[in-house]
Amino acid sequence: MLDMTRRSPRPETASGLARGLGWFSIALGLAELVAPRAITRSLGLRGQEGLVQAYGVREIATGIGLLGTRQPAPWLWGRVGGDVLDLATLAAAGGSRRQREARGIAMAAVLGITVLDVLCAATLSGTPGRATSRGGMSTPRSYGYGGRRGFRDLPERMRGAARDARIPEDMRIPKLLRPYGN
Amino acid sequence: MKALRWHGKQDIRCDEVPDPAIEHPRDAIVKVTSCAICGSDLHLYDGFMPGMESGDIMGHEFMGEVVEVGAENKKLKVGDRVVVPFTICCGECDQCRRGYFSVCERSNRNKSVADKVFGHSPAGLFGYTHLTGGYPGGQAEFVRVPFADVAPVKVPDGLTDEQVLFLGDIFPTGWQAAVQCDIQPTDTVAIWGAGPVGQFCVRSAVLLGARQVICIDRVPERLEMARAGGAVTIDFENESVVERLNELTHGKGPEKCIDAVGLEAHATGSLDSLYDRAKQAVMLETDRPHVLREMMYVCRPAGILSVPGVYGGVLDKIPFGMVMNKGLTIRTGQTHVNRWTDDLLRRIAEGEINPSFVITHRAKLEDGPALYKTFRDKQDGCIKVVLQP
Ligand SMILES: NC(=O)c1ccc[n+]([C@@H]2O[C@H](COP(=O)([O-])OP(=O)(O)OC[C@H]3O[C@@H](n4cnc5c(N)ncnc54)[C@H](O)[C@@H]3O)[C@@H](O)[C@H]2O)c1
Ligand SMILES: [Zn+2]
Ligand SMILES: [Zn+2]
């Protein structure tokens, strides 16, 4: 489990955790998608099967996003949003005492996961990603590679300089496909 | 000696390891003076290629001084300065005799495994998975070079390390990619990827006389370097690649397309890329072939797709119908380095091209692990890293 004495997990631990949360999302999402009735019955959410399935789709999408990216932070914040939605849904429902108890347990579990999501997202939000032309962490900067032509002369003047190279017959196009049959 | 070793996904360390020794009379030991990190190393770093084991020494772009030669090696002597091609070849088998060095039939010492995985085994490669022999690589102080009487290229003292280092891989790779296009003076050559390989594709296509060379990427400084070499550029993050390519070719599409990206292609906002990411994430697909699909779509009928970009396993949703109906030719493979080195060395010596233009970062071997990340993430304007042990 997570070492709670640290203020936040190290980025490497957090990346591992993010993957774990990704698989967890997919598992939970699949369960919600294929067995919504079992879930609604035990939690007193009868009639909400459609909603549970929609949540399932959301979980799977987030899970795949988490597993497929190098920058999991936005997906993790997405999970936090989903957690809040789950908590609200659970809190709003009525039902028998047994069902309310079951929902209490479910809410405690979701809260626990929410803490993990927030910790993990906060840690990884601090890790810089690739600087891109847009939305990057550092301001775009010119590196001055415009003069690195690699040729002894301007490219216009180098065009065709290696036409003397012998192109091996096995790497030529069939004669018929050459534009002027040369 | 010190060497950069793979310990798992995104975990490369500079470790102390035993020095290599001559194992076969045709071997040589090379003391590395310069080595580089290649885009192919990134596929290992990111864990996309199968067959790596913890502790493997990385690196397949290196050069240095011969410090020991086996008894049967008639080509090299102690003190020779050599660039070592990344493809290990015997020089004698059927494939080597035809010049298909990267599929040498004898240099892969794990041939039986590779036969199972690939149907038939390709050549052994330095620092590149146990499927291609598991040979310790060149990001190290010393390397044992098997069949050292065949591939190593002797270089004259008048040329610097930085001028000749890339003869071992990326220059011949860009060159072969362009040669495979059989470029005609009327051709438009479109090159996906402005990484080091893409940069050499651009220069090679210009030298071989293409009428128009187009380079596609999204990293501004890489595009800037491609323009410096004579390319028109397309930023795939802000422009539609297919539309722009058609515009630039009067609606007919480029005759020749080169994939210098490989299996880690990025794509923004396209459906197929989301599909690949999802399938790759849950391990149902190994590679992300967005660039291949785009090339198949936009290429002019009867055109050529040249694929130096590395792929590792199985690819999904490849529109082969387009390839068949448009009669496209696909040429691909690891580079047959020695087929080109004499000619390219001469072009460097005559000053036609100076491959050092691509180097943006120089550092000590110990700084290698950090620079893998810098190169992978394209931080700090990084395009090519050269390390000195
Ligand atoms: N065939 C061979 O013998 C051989 C030899 C060396 C390298 N390679 C391969 O060539 C490829 C390129 O190597 P590199 O060193 O230039 O690597 P690199 O990772 O530095 O370059 C790849 C470039 O492709 C760009 N890119 C990503 N997605 C793209 C897209 N959808 N469209 C256009 N560009 C896109 C990236 O921004 C990057 O600049 C790798 O797959 C490498 O393994 C093959
Ligand atoms: Zn390489
Ligand atoms: Zn051979």
From TrEMBL, chain A:
Transmembrane in keyword set: yes
Sequence segments annotated as region (Disordered): 128-149
Domain of life: Bacteria
Keyword list, A-Z: Membrane, Transmembrane, Transmembrane helix
Protein's organism: Rhodoplanes serenus
Residues annotated as transmembrane: 105-124
Protein name from the UniProt record: Cyclase dehydrase
Automatic annotation (TrEMBL), chain B:
Alphabetic keyword roster: Metal-binding, Zinc
The keyword Transport appears for this protein: no
Sequence ranges assigned to domain Alcohol dehydrogenase-like C-terminal in this UniProt record: 196-277
Domain Alcohol dehydrogenase-like N-terminal: residue ranges: 25-153
Entry cofactors: Zn(2+)
Matching SUPFAM superfamilies: GroES-like, NAD(P)-binding Rossmann-fold domains
Recorded superkingdom: Bacteria
Signal peptide: none
Keyword set includes Metal-binding: yes
One Gene Ontology term of the molecular function aspect: metal ion binding
InterPro entries: ADH-like_C, ADH-like_N, GroES-like_sf, NAD(P)-bd_dom_sf
Protein name in the entry: Alcohol dehydrogenase catalytic domain-containing protein
